[in-house]
Each structure stands twice: as structure tokens, then as C-alpha cells.
Protein 1
Amino acid sequence: MLNRGTTAEPPTLDPTLGGGTLAAPIIADLFSGLLDRGPDGALVPGSAESWSISEDGRTYRFRLREGLQWSDGRELTADDFVYSYRRLMDPATASRLVGVFYPIRNARAVLSRDKPLEALGVSAPDARTVVFELDERTPYFLELVGNLRVAPVPRHVIEAEGRGWTRPGKMVSNGPYVLTGRVPQSYLRLDKNPRYFDAGAVRLDQVFWHPTQNLATSFSRFRAGELDIVLNFPPAEIDWIRENMPDALHITSNLGVYFLVLNTREPPFDDVRVRRALSLAIDRDAITDRLLRTGVRPAYGFVTPAISEYDGVQIPERELPFAERQAKARELLAAAGYGPGKVLQVNLAYDTNEENRKIMVAIAAMWQAVGVRSAITDVEFRMLNRMVRTRDFGVARWFYVAAFDDPYAMLQLFLSDNPNNWPGWKDPEFDRLMAASNTETDRAERLALLAEAERLLMAAHPVVPISYYVGRRLVGPRVNGWIDSPRGPPLSRYLWLE
């Protein structure tokens, strides 16, 4: 029995809705897509045993393993994958990252209700074959298929149970584990799934996930042996950990960025001068080097340097001394009409977490130094997610972890028609550059197009990057099979205890 810690109660265990959220590691224990992730995070065959790609790069055919079953014993077929992709793109589902799958033929038209779900370019010519047709060549499409947002979901259970289909006793999955118990804010119990196609290689009988928002509590439980793995810990403890339990400490880069999202649909954040001033007034180096001190890097661009072969774009002012950046911020605010006679008021929301609180307090103090007043509000992550999705915010603490190792994975968030364009910023030239990157066959030229798109994004400041994430884990001595990877912590199926 493995005890894993997670930083918050998962908002949902539905793969279509929970991919890319704090629920993702748990969902990864419960479901298997066409492609999966290996121990090191690389793509490996999942429910599909093989696949082929057409010469023009626009048709993908996946061959399912023979004898696949749901955890309730029902046969799992290619039709289940077709249903799952249609459900993902159904506007009624409101999946938070449908924009990632726009390359699929007619995806945009289906999402806008201009075409029926049946027009989506996913089909099942027979029970073991899934075919994707794309609108255009998409060099990273296999990475998309390997993402758990498109794990199959059981139509027969969803239609019978509705939203309650993910409750223990009702939930049916196809991965290495099944959900057998759940106590909110306490634990989720997962038992080994004997019907998983590779059940013989799964060495853990049970996995308990323990949501703990308070990092100090999580750290104390790890020290007491109650948790075998925690995915974060209080930054102030880093020196003690390095001195007293260095073997437990695992710090590695990953594909995520910590940032503020500004609601550009509403004043004052519809003014680029205000957005730029707020960005310039933040001393990212002080936050990462003096406040956190855990290996995170200051972020002056949006795309993390952990993305392979991409140099990225940084705001030009990074090279200026911080005092000069502050002076420039004051000038921009004055030009926008703010000053002692009219103080800029900012509502800053973040999800409850001690580390987040320290960062937000530091940012508020930095803004105050240039004449900006901040009202800081802490809420549960579920509420913050609702606020951002419903556009009911001014400035919000947010994060994003790339679904695949390519700059497009991060930049596509800001396409004009992406429903997850959280700040509401739109730029036709940005859209043009992003589209051109998908048809460019020369790798260097393609990356140059993406860099130009990021340059436009950073000049507009709809988001304020703060730091690039690192994986900051504690792994107990009885856990074996752990491999550090930029793609995230290993799945439970690859671990064992001694």
C-alpha cells in the first residue's frame, strides 16, 4: 500500500474535465489512453498496441490491443474512444482544454455548434481501429493522443449515472487501478484493477492519495512516515531537508509556469500600459532566490526553458536594474491616468496555500512601492477555477503545465478562439504565426515562428509570468522505481515498495 500526498482535493476525476488540473496524477492511475507515459515520461503504447501515420501527416490509425475491458468486465472497443473524443469537443461538456485538440478535422465547427458531433474527424471502422483525420499537418499530434484528457470514458456508466459516475462504487475505469473509496479532504483509495491489460506488471495492490493543502501538515506527515511521497513542501524547510534527509529530496525542472492572469476584457486591465507596469514592478529574482530558494527560476517569458530545443523570449526590461523597472512602471501608470490623486486598485485572487500566500503578499508589496493598492483574496482552488472560467476576476494566480514537449503546447492557450484564453487577449498576427508554425516543415523555421508569436504575447502582457516550476518532491526510503522527469512524477503503476 502506497500513500501519496497531493496538494488539494481533486476538482473532478473525470478525465475529460480533470486533465491538466491537480487531479491529473490521480486520473493517470485510473485510466489508460491510446498512448500512455512510461516511467521516464516518454510515450509508450497504451490501450493501442500500434499506430501508423499517412504520408501527408493528416491521418492517424491506432490498433487497439485485443481483449480490452472496462473494470466492470464490459468490452472496451474503438467506439468508446470515438464517444470520448466527441464528448470532449461537445460544447455542453465544457472541457477546459478543448483548444488543444483543434487540429482534429471539424473540431472548431463542432465546438461552435456549426456542425454536429458526428462531423468530428474521429471514427471507428472496426472494433479495434481508431482513425483520426486532421485539418492540417500537426507535428505533435502523438503527444496530444498520449495526454490523459483523451482517456476513454465509459458511456454506459455516464449515461446511467450522470455527473455521479465518478463516485466510488459507480466509477468504471480502464487503467491500472479502480476507485474503491473516497473521504473528501482525507483520502482517495485506489485498488489494483485485475482487468487492466498489463495488470501482471502492476506491483502495488493499493494506492491512497491524501489531499493536504497545508504544506506544513503534509511535510509533518511525511516525516512521521504517514506519507511515502509528497509533491510539495514548505520552501522554508529546504535547508533542513538538504541537511537531514538529502536522499528524500528530488528537485527537477518541469514543463510548467507560475503566473498571474489579467482580465483584459475589463478596465483597467484593457490598457496595455497598466499591464506592463504591473509586470515591471515585480522583482521575480527576489521571489525565486530569496523567498522560495528551492531551485525555481524567475520567468520573464511564458514558455518554460524546459521545452526542448526552444530558446524562448524574454521581456527586454529584464536587463534593467530593478529600480529602473520600478521607475518605468510609475511612468506607465501616470500615462494611464493613475497616481496619488487616482490610485490604481487591484483585486488579486489566489488559491489557499502557504507558498502562494507568501508570493502574493510579496507581489502586493512590490506593487505598493509603485503606487498600486492590492486587495488579496484567498479561496479554495475549486473556487479560483470557477472565477477564472467565468471571468469573475481582476488578477488571479494561475499555473499551466504543458501537455506536450513543444512551445505550441503553451502558446496555443492565447489563440483568439481558444476557450481557455483566460485573459481574453486576442491578436490576429499571433493567430497567423501560430497557424503557420503547424504547416512549416523546417524545424528551425517553425521554432522561429513560435518565438515571434511569444514575442507578441510578452509585448502585450496579458499574463505576468513569475517563475518556472520545478518538481519539488519528497520520496520515502521504501519507494522504488522513482525516476525524475520534466514530464512529472512517475505513475503509481511503475513504483513498488521494499
Protein 2
Amino acid sequence: MNDAVHNYDLELAAQLQAALLPEACPKECEHQRMAARNRMCGSVGGDFYDFIPINDEQVAFVVGDVVGHGVQAALVMAMIKGFLHADHGNRLRPTEIVANLNAMLCHLSDRTTSMTTCSLIYTVLDIPSGSCFLCNAGHAAPLLMEPNSFGAVHLSQHDLLLGIEPFEPTEICHTFKPGERLVLFTDGIPDALNPEGEFFGTSRLNTILMDHQHSDADTTADTVMDAVTAFRRDAEQTDDETIVILDRL
């Protein structure tokens, strides 16, 4: 394959992957506001997020990170999003969705020469009540901020990465109070490196969230991404970076 064909294929793959990400976060809900930002470290990558309407009162939102980079990660991401958007009768049950997705990736690993793994948070939110049911498969724990708090707290523990072996996913429940903020992110944000080899880290992320807890979700998401860029300076971006913020009104 010559370079021109290779570059064309990568460009096409990048366009297709961008088309798979939501064009915008849900805006019409009177109870919450959401913001999301995604920055790949190459033409294509393995980070993804999604918002999946279930019915008039429930929505699922997902943040995931396929291990690896490039076309392989992008293909697996596309498979996962296709699975999540299929007409499942169990969309309201995070543990069932995660268990079935894990079985699919384990089967894929058995049929290929390499293990296909992914971290993922699948959350079902009841819009009127603010109750959410969350299942975390090997992903960084979401950060929960209460109004006028002095720092964020980790909302959940996590199970195994998807695609390694069968396991029984666990689920937690949290009911949001007005003014609470939930922050989900991929490890590319805390793991960003500057030229001195220092990590951006969760403490810097926590500080930014504290300093902007009265800013809206879009402003805060932009501030986090800008801060990571400024911290990295001229060092190379080595991982995809994604953040999703949910504010309960």
C-alpha cells in the first residue's frame, strides 16, 4: 500500500469515527445540562462517549476507552457503539449490558491474535428523579462534586476491563441532588505528560473542577481541555482525551 492510499484510508477512517460521536449533548432537558469534549492523539483512536435515549424519562450515557490506538481501536469502538445502539430490551439494566458486551469482546479476542480490551462506564439516568444506576468496567472512577464542595469524591469502584474474562458486573445507585456535578473522563487526561515527564494527574483536575464549580458544564469542559494542553506544552499527546460533565439543575 502506497502512502497516498494509506493516508486516504486514515482520513476516511477519521471521518467515519467522528461521525459516530454525538454531534451535541442533550440540551432540551429541564433537569440537567451535559457537556462533552474528545481529542484523539492520532487520526483515529479508541476513546468514545455516547448518549442513548431509552424512553421519554430515561437516558443512558456511556464513556469508554478501547485499549490501544489507531485503526484497530477505532474498529472495536465502532463495534461497541453498534452493540450499544442495538435494540436491546435490557438497556435499563447496566449490569446486563456490560456482561453481554464483555462476552462479545471476549469472543472477539478468542477469534483474533490479540486481546481486545476496553474500559467503560455505562450509566442509566432517570431524568425526573435524578436517580442513576452505574456500572464501571475497569474505568477511572467518576468524580462527584456537591455544591460549594472543597473537592470531588470518587463515585464508584470498578470491575475488570471488558474483554479479558467473564465476570459478574456490579452496579451502584446514586440520586443526584440539585447543584451536583458528575465528571467522567478517560485516563488520557490525568496521564498527560509535560516535557519534564510529570503527569497532569487527578489532583490538578480536581483543582480545576473546584475553581470552576460555578461555571456551566461547557465552560468547565473547555477549561479542563485547555489546561491539559497548556500543561503538556510542546510534549507529544500520547493518549486520547475525553471528558463528559453532567450538571443536575
